[in-house]
Design brief:
heterodimer, A: 257 residues, alpha/beta, TIM Barrel, 8-stranded parallel beta barrel, 10 helices, 35% helix, 27% strand, globular, B: 223 residues, Rossmann fold, 8-stranded mixed beta sheet, 4-stranded mixed beta sheet
């Protein structure tokens, strides 16, 4: 049967891998090609690159980085950050990305998701949803709001309704990040992950908050995620992808070993 | 001596070309929309992604239909994903006629069947790494253990009209055909170019597949 996926995430800025807490205080974590190759050897099921600077003048740097990685690493690559037009989607796919992740532009212009999925197929369109718990909503009936611009701007959109709308617009997958948990290393927002995974019929990638192997296992067993994404526990050599997979297998989760 | 990757303007062929180059041992890999180049190639790879109706339309518009059908019946030929689906008579996806190189149809994972043994709903598209079971010994499976995982991303799968066409199957949650073989032709629903070592091995096998002898030439290695 289908295996749950473990996806190391590489936040990139100026051609380097970086990691910060709540999208600020960035620390250098290595050369993208080297990091990608290391994860490939460890058995990563996919890799996700997010260009967190996403400025238009750095576009060329990002594309050449994607080209270098794609020529050496033969597993699926997702690239996101600053994807705003169909031309951006096409350039990334041509550079060797298998999927592109769309975030802010989807909120600004939902029809863009429809257009991109219509032209290149749902299989390559990931919609990234950055969700933050709405203060005052109870644990029994929690709600989350969509944020854009790397977690800096509230949109007023209900996250679950938004995810379901993106599914109907042709998103092939949702990359779901908890803004409350991102970079905190205290575990996924499991209620958020489960709410999305149970409500939508497309795969959900859980993201934001992983601090231990157990957190990743829980993302699947309790959060019902189809895939789990993490950055810092891998980048600083705390754990390997293989260790996470063995823990998942021990917990009865089907993985590719 | 070249390997032609058929380019009909749909999606990303770079991954397929890069992975082939990685294992081709110096054999030139050309991504081409020229029917003459396809006719002249020793081996032909027919990839595809996106919507099948758009793929068929573009194939037709670029005048590649006849060249693909000819290659599929004469030389080592590898279909990948939509490239496999287009070989059949028709697809349920927007009720699209295919090339009818192989008898059978392409159907969608039926919503009512998408529940696992524990009662949990299974997502469509079928996306990720699944075990591929080999229905028969075939040179293209050389060096690949039965049950090896390959990377899939699709919502439709083939139902060949002749059981002997099935070379491999997978489960989601029921068994479905994910590899077909007939003579010089081999086609897979999964993506070997994205399937790490096992995928590179399959592509290396294709590069070295001797269809007359039904074997893989000696130099097949996987780096």
């Amino acid at each position: 049967m289908l295996a749950r996926r473990i996806i190391p995430c590489l936040d990139v800025a100026g051609g380097r891998v970086v990691k910060g807490v709540n999208f600020v205080d960035l620390r250098d974590a290595g050369d993208p090609v080297e990091v990608a190759r290391r994860y490939d050897e460890q058995g990563a099921d996919e890799l996700t690159f997010l260009d967190i600077t996403a400025s238009s003048d750095a576009r060329g740097t990002l594309l050449s980085m994607v080209e270098s990685v794609a020529a050496q690493v033969f597993i699926p690559l997702t690239v996101g950050g600053g994807v705003r037009t169909v031309t951006d989607v096409r350039s990334l796919l041509n550079a060797g990305a298998d999927k592109v992740s769309i975030n802010t532009a989807a909120v600004q212009s939902p029809g863009f998701v429809q257009e991109a999925a219509g032209r290149y197929g749902s299989q390559c369109i990931v919609v990234a949803v950055d969700a933050k718990r709405v203060p005052g909503t109870s644990d029994d009936a929690p709600r989350w709001e969509v944020y854009t611009h790397g977690g800096r701007r509230a949109t007023g959109l209900d996250a679950l309704e938004w995810g379901s709308r993106m599914q109907s617009y042709g998103a092939g997958e949702i990359l779901l990040t908890s803004m409350d948990r991102d970079g905190t290393r205290v575990g996924f927002d499991l209620a958020l992950t489960r709410a999305f995974s149970d409500a939508l019929s497309i795969p959900i990638i859980a993201s934001g908050g992983v601090g231990s192997i157990g957190d990743m296992v829980e993302g699947v067993t309790l959060g019902h995620a189809d895939a789990v994404l993490a950055a810092s526990i891998f980048h600083y050599g705390q754990h390997t992808v293989g260790e996470v997979k063995r823990a998942m297998a021990a917990a009865g989760v089907e993985v590719r070993l | 001596m070249t390997i032609a990757v058929v380019d009909y303007g749909m999606g990303n062929l770079r991954s397929v070309a890069k992975a082939l180059e990685h294992v081709a041992d110096g054999v030139p890999v050309v991504v081409t929309d020229d029917p003459g180049a396809i006719a002249a190639a020793e081996r032909v790879v027919f990839p595809g992604q996106g919507a099948m109706r758009d793929c068929m339309r573009e194939l037709q518009a670029r005048g590649l239909r006849a060249a693909v059908i000819e290659a599929a019946s004469s030389r080592p030929f590898l279909g990948i994903c939509i490239g496999l689906q287009m070989l059949f008579e028709k697809s349920e996806e927007a009720d699209t006629p295919g090339l009818a190189v192989l008898p059978g149809e392409v159907i969608r994972f039926p919503a009512e069947a998408m529940v696992d043994a524990a009662g949990a709903r299974l997502k469509v598209p079928h996306m990720g790494w699944n075990e591929v079971h080999q229905s028969e010994a075939h040179p293209m499976w050389t060096g690949i253990p039965d049950g090896t995982r390959f990377y899939f991303v699709h919502s439709y799968f083939p139902q060949p009209a002749l059981p002997e066409l099935v070379a491999g199957y997978s489960h989601y949650p029921f068994p479905f055909c994910c590899a077909v073989a007939r003579g010089n032709l081999f086609a897979v629903q999964f993506h070997p170019e994205k399937s790490h070592r096992a995928g590179l091995q399959l592509l290396a096998n294709f590069v070295n597949w001797d269809i007359q002898a039904g074997t893989i030439k000696e130099r097949a290695t996987c780096s």
